[in-house]
Write a structure and sequence with these properties.
InterPro entries: Put_HupE_UreJ (IPR032809). Keywords: Membrane, Signal, Transmembrane, Transmembrane helix. This is HupE/UreJ family protein. Pfam families: HupE_UreJ_2. It is a single chain. The protein contains 10 helices and 13 strands. It is an alpha+beta fold and 372 residues long. It folds into 2 domains: 147 residues, no CATH class; 191 residues. A 6-stranded mixed sheet has the order 6-7-2-1-9-10. A 3-stranded antiparallel sheet has the order 5-8-11. Strands 3-4 form a two-stranded antiparallel ribbon. Helix 6 packs antiparallel against helix 9 and helix 7 runs antiparallel to helix 8. It is elongated and about 100 Å long.
């Protein structure tokens, strides 16, 4: 009887110990990144007990608290397990500097200050950080990567590294407010160039730009001056509309779910196609362009908001992104203008315009169905 009681007590103690172990989370590492003029400073905090598991031996002598691991050995270890990579695949240089052993706190930590420097020509503002210190041996280990862009700014989480995810893309590390503007200009160009729905709306709305209206129908060529005035009004109005909501969306002032925005963009193409077939808002194309531009700008703003910019960096980013959009728009209109001129003067003008309007309308209906 006594032996059974002892067995039950032992099982109970074991169960309590296992529950306590599960209830106490494993210490995690922390990597605080801070952008400098030509490098990124990383403050790496590692829990000492977990680090000892990675090395496979005690790192501190108890109870004297004598450190058994040389700083140079720790520096070599960190240099092997911190691997920043530029967007083109080139490795950054990693230099481990000062090391601090925080042995009088519980749990004890070791903190290393590391300088990360990009290769020549690589951007400081965007790189991939590969980090598997401790985690290469302790697979359940977690590391939290945060980013601070100024001494007085609050760090923001760049990513959490855990099993199966040992790298994180870091953006916004360069503390200079204009940093990354060229990349955002290119991003704006890519966003509009790859956004078939945005371009299709604009081109469909411009289909009858060279035409006059007679008896409620498109009729007759209005001349190059009429075409130039129509293009200028429509493109400017569209730019004003999407620029406004781009700014509001990027700052988070206006947040609209993605699906209704995408449906509304497809609907804007359908309305433009109907107008290209037969004038339904004659002389008010600029107002239509501005109104639907507000909707298109919400989609632009959502993609920019994900970058979490603020202050002067946000202002520069919005401007650069918008200029990228405008650059592609100007190029598209420059190519489309002579084609619209030739179409308006052609004897096949009516058929060509209606076929294009029908194709755009069919595409819009398909997009609406898919997005709904």
């Amino acid at each position: 009887m006594l032996s059974r009681v002892l067995q039950l007590a032992a099982i109970l103690c074991l169960a309590l110990a296992m529950a306590a172990a599960r209830g106490h989370p494993s210490p995690q590492s922390a990597v605080l990144l801070e952008g400098r003029a030509d490098s990124v400073r990383a403050e790496v905090t590692l829990p000492l007990d977990e680090l000892a598991l990675a090395f496979g031996r005690p790192l501190v002598e108890v109870p004297s608290n004598r450190v058994l691991l040389a700083d140079a050995e720790l520096a070599a270890y960190l240099a092997a397990h911190i691997r920043p990579v530029a967007p083109d695949g080139r490795a950054w240089t990693v230099k481990v500097g000062k090391v601090r052993w925080l042995l009088h706190q519980r749990p004890a930590d070791v903190v290393a200050f590391v300088t990360l420097r990009p290769p020549a020509g690589a951007p400081l503002d965007r790189f991939t950080l590969n980090f598997d210190a401790i985690a290469h041996h302790v697979q359940s280990h977690i590391a939290v990567v945060t980013l601070r862009t100024g001494e007085d700014s609050m760090p923001r989480i760049a990513g959490t590294l855990r099993f199966g995810q040992r790298s994180v893309t870091v953006q916004g590390a360069d503390p200079r407010w204009w940093a990354g503007s060229l990349d955002l200009f290119r991003l704006g160009m890519a966003h509009i160039a790859e956004g078939a729905d945005h371009l299709l709306f604009l081109l469909t709305l411009l289909l009858p730009a060279a035409l006059l209206v007679k008896n409620g129908r498109w009729h007759g060529y209005g001349g190059p001056r009429h075409l130039a005035a129509s293009l200028l009004k429509v493109v400017t109005a569209f730019t004003v509309g999407h620029s406004l909501t781009l700014l509001l969306g990027a700052t988070g002032t206006v947040r609209v779910p993605e699906q209704p925005v995408e449906v509304a963009i497809a609907a804007s193409i359908l309305v433009s196609a109907a107008h290209a077939w037969r004038p339904i808002f004659r002389g008010r194309e600029a107002w239509i362009a501005a109104g639907f531009g507000l909707v298109h700008g919400l989609a632009f703003g959502a993609s920019l908001r994900e970058l979490e910019l603020s202050g002067l960096r946000l202002a520069a980013g919005v401007l650069a992104f918008n200029l990228g959009i405008e650059a592609v728009q100007v190029a598209i209109v420059a190519v489309a203008a002579p084609l619209l001129l030739l179409l308006a003067r052609s004897r096949f003008s009516v058929y060509g315009r209606r076929i294009a309007a029908l194709a755009a309308g069919a595409m819009a209906v398909m997009w609406i169905a898919l997005r709904v």
